[in-house]
Amino acid sequence: MTADEKFMKAAIRQAKKAEALGDVPIGCVIVYEGKVIARGYNRRMADRTVLAHAEILAIRKACRKIGDWRLEGCVMYVTLEPCPMCAGAIVQARIPRVVIGSMNPKAGCAGSVLDLLHQPGFNHQTETETGVLGEECSAMLTEFFRKLRRKKADADLDK
């Protein structure tokens, strides 16, 4: 198992915490000098705020841990391609490398819909690696939404 796979497994464990709360299973870890310094998982429904994305929560924790808003020298591992808000936070935090499990063709901003992480006009661009444990990350999301649709269909039948 490569280091990228090891840390993506840690992000997947975070995603499963989100799923246990009924949130979309997205997880994130931030690594500095070969050690996980911050973890986050999607908590939008649990916290009732659009800001509770896995990446945002992990960035906040990493900044506290390092004692700076710049996360230069860190690597982010995230199970789903970042949205516009999270991609913007990654650029602002100066994270040099992001490893992505599954791409997000509906809202991804690391190459799917937009590519904010490689925008030449910005003062920082981020190296990206995609598809690390991608099948596992994608399957977790597919199964979550399959169960959600089934639950909604069952509820509609009960009406």
Write the layout of secondary structure elements.
Layout: H1 3-20, E1 27-32, E2 35-41, H2 44-47, H3 54-66, E3 74-80, H4 84-92, E4 97-102, E5 127-130, H5 134-158
Parallel strand pairs: 3-4, 4-5
Antiparallel strand pairs: 1-2, 1-3
Q: Any idea what the shape is? A: globular
Largest sheet: 5 strands, mixed
- End-to-end C-alpha gap: 49 Å
Element pattern in H and E: HEEHHEHEEH
Helix content: 40-55%
Alpha-beta classification? alpha/beta
**Strand content bin:** 15-25%
Q: Kindly state the number of beta strands.
A: 5
What is the radius of gyration?
Answer: 16 Å
Number of helices: 5
Mean pLDDT: 95
Parts with pLDDT < 50 across at least 5 consecutive residues: none
Q: Can you list the strand order of the major beta sheet?
A: 2-1-3-4-5
Characterise this structure.
The chain has 159 residues and is an alpha/beta fold. It has five helices and five strands; from the N terminus they run αββααβαββα. The chain has helices at residues 3-20, 44-47, 54-66, 84-92, 134-158, and strands at residues 27-32, 35-41, 74-80, 97-102, 127-130. Strands 2-1-3-4-5 form a five-stranded mixed beta sheet. Helix 4 links the parallel strand 3 and strand 4. The termini are far apart. 38% of the residues are buried. The model has no long low-confidence stretch (mean pLDDT 95).
